[in-house]
Amino acid sequence: MTGVVTPAPLERAFFARPAEQLARAMLGTRLVSSVGGDVAAGRIVETEAYVGPHDPASHAAERIGRTRRNGAMFGEPGTAYVYRLYGHWCLNVVSDAAGYPAAVLVRAIAPLSGFPLMRARRWPDREPGRDRDLGRGPGNLTRSLGITGALDAHPLDTPPLWLETGPAPDASRVAVAPRVGVTRAADWPLRFFIRGDPHVSRR
DNA sequence: GAAACGATTATCT
DNA sequence: GATAATCGTTTCA
Question: Residue A3 domain-assigned?
C-alpha cells in the first residue's frame, strides 16, 4: 500500500520554518473545519507566502509594524491570522518563529468532505453553484468552511479548525508564480499551486 | 470624525 | 477585461 496517507494533526514543528518553505509544504495537506459542529474539509492546492518585515507586500511590513489587525502574525507558528478584505475573510497560517511576523495565505482548497454544509454556507441565498467553486479563492474557501475573524489567533491543532497531513503533490506538479493582487513586490515568486488543479484561483 | 485602502468576488460586456 | 460592491482597518485632519 503506497500513496495513502493516514490523516494526522500537523505538529507545531511543521510550521516553525520560513514562510516560503511552509507555503510549499502546505500543498496537499488537509484543512478541516468543525465550525458549527459539523465537519467540512478540503485539500490545500494553492498558497502564498508573506515572508517577513522585509516583504513590502506583507501586512506586517517594516513600514507598518505591529497593528491591531496584524497582531496574530507575531504569534506562535501554527496559529491562524484571519483578516477582512473587501468584505471577505482570508485565512493565513502563521509561520517561522513567535515574534517574527510571517505567514502563509491559503488561497484555494479542493473540497473533500462536508459538501452539503459547504454549499449551504457558500450559497445561502440561491441555488448552489459548481462544487469546484467551493474552495476556489481565499474569500470563497473561508466562507465555505465557516471561518471568520473569531478564529484569529486560533491554534491550528485544535477544533474547530485544524490542519492534517495529506498526500504531498508530485514535485513536478508544483508551480511557482508571483502573488495575486499585490501591488508591492509584485514580481516576487511566492505563490505556490498544484498545476492543473481546477480549484486553483485565477488571475 | 472622515476618507482612503486593499493578500476579493460577482456580474456584466 | 472591465467594473461595482464589499467593510473593517488604517491613516490623516
Answer: no
